[in-house]
Amino acid sequence: MSTATTSFIDRRIVVDWLGIAPFMIFALMFLIIPTLYLVTGAFFTPDGEFTFKNIVDLFTPSIMSAYWISIRVSVASSIGGAVIGFFLAWAIVLGGVPPWVRSGLLTFSGVASNFAGVPLAFAFLATLGRTGLVTILLRDWLGFNLYSTGFNILSFFGLTITYMFFQIPLMVLILTPALDGMKREWREASEILGASTWQYWRMVALPILWPSLMGTTLLLFANAFGAIATAYALTGSSLNIVPILLYAQIRGDVLHNANLGYALALGMIVITGISNILYIWLRTRAERWQK
């Protein structure tokens, strides 16, 4: 290899690394270093002494209750989003809908999957709150009082429905490429062998799609578990989930122990980290199947 070629390759490598340097610096400053700070801080007292007390204190009833409510909301919204999102994705890919329906739904999903925080909370309060539009229409036109059934938008069920607004579109966006990857030859081969539509889905399609389905559901779980803006704007402190408890600790309203707050954040990192690792593993398996 000539000197000129070697010099060109070296310059190309330098340019490539310069291109990703801003991202690496950003990730280091706002993701990696803060995470390491939280992890190490969870094992120290405010005086700087090493301790496991902060980890042990995570198992107190109030904190365990917050974790349990967060897990329940995340599981419910991820399963609901996965089921509804799967059928929506199936309809636009394999259901024979017009192309404009597919493009419109995917565009809406791209917007709705990022619609969260205060605007989403306000939208649901204006729709399903005690004086919301749907609540008033049901009461005045159909004589049905939604809140007499025990429904409350500020409850576990209300927060789950609100989360599903961005969980369903996210499921559609992630699962649509997986359904697009289903080869027509697989369906034709199963029909030649005499398989019914149900047998094709039970024995061929679903086993292939299963890693994508499970992986995306885990991703939805992690997405809901770490959400705070929507929950705080919707319920305030009436629903004791982990992100709200951590937010209150950061403001100095509860716990009065910054290192216990670090331990609380460490627990969230562990749970969401496990979910994302399993998602990556399942996603890798799904891509290998579809090659």
From TrEMBL:
SUPFAM superfamilies: MetI-like. The chain crosses the membrane at residues 20-45, 66-95, 115-138, 150-179, 199-222, 229-250, 262-282. It is a multi-pass membrane protein. Its main location: membrane. Signal peptide: none annotated. It is found in: Cell membrane. This is ABC transporter permease subunit.
